[in-house]
């Protein structure tokens, strides 16, 4: 039975992540955002501390933690910097196709690398004309005589792409088959024909690097194909079911940061002779943030529990991601409003939170796509 209370062991994980966030992430985040620099040393410290790749099974050298634990960590990291949290979570996202559909040999090889070495693996799904429309992708896998495939295509908006040592991705063996032609694969960055495009200049989450990944006549053997050819769409959907609760957790972390910053400022800033916290208009904003945080946390914890207990959770994961993202954008907008003119400057952290929040409504399925998923589940007979 679902229990929203966390255990003593889970509380210790939260405490570790919270201390790392306070000591390492929060002091460094503004500089990395301003310079748009990938914070490699921050990630290295997180990896050494055991805060990355936490859900890799013990059989492959990992901690074997559940989605609930991964989400609790993600909330703390996003409280400090949503961009840094995104890049750390995307290592898990990149590993998920292997965890979901990989062979024993693939898991030993590719997941083992992430545990033994400090390196990144990117999830290459989106394309210039196929973001949320996974079935519309144009990257092609053409079978070779004697076995194997030749991969060609372009992937867009790929987190950590310029830093990754390997990629999991998807391409079609036949566009006419639509979703039934999608096939999952894994490939090393050093393979001939794999290259990375320029780093995108982004509104927010600037410490998280985003690039294109290009595949030009890349030769893949059967050992690079994850699962059965033509079954990759189902791998991708299972991956999103498992990863979206973590986005909800990031939303919760950002909302809680907005609430804390706004509350502290409201108690200090005075207008008309009293702290603005005494004005009812400000109190309503703070109350709404508290409500949003509690609801988002409850949704992501339930969705994560359902993942860990193998409950069908497509709708719950979408609820957590959709509600959380919308609530995070509103909380960040309201935080800037509480700070007034100061909130619009880089002197205070809410300006960055405002820019960082928007991406939560876009990546891993937009808020509109989440509503489509929710509606389909509601209307399914």
TrEMBL record:
InterPro entries (UniProt xref): Acyl-CoA_DH_CS, Acyl-CoA_Oxase/DH_mid-dom, Acyl-CoA_Oxase/DH_mid-dom_sf, AcylCo_DH-like_C, AcylCo_DH/oxidase_C, AcylCoA_DH/ox_N, AcylCoA_DH/ox_N_sf, AcylCoA_DH/oxidase_NM_dom_sf
Domain Acyl-CoA dehydrogenase/oxidase C-terminal: start-end pairs: 230-379
Enzyme class: oxidoreductase
Domain Acyl-CoA dehydrogenase/oxidase N-terminal: 7-116
Family: Belongs to the acyl-CoA dehydrogenase family.
PANTHER family hit by this protein: ACYL-COA DEHYDROGENASE (PTHR43884), ISOVALERYL-COA DEHYDROGENASE, MITOCHONDRIAL-RELATED (PTHR43884:SF12)
Name recorded for this polypeptide: Acyl-CoA dehydrogenase
Protein source organism: Enhygromyxa salina
Encoding gene (name): acdA_8
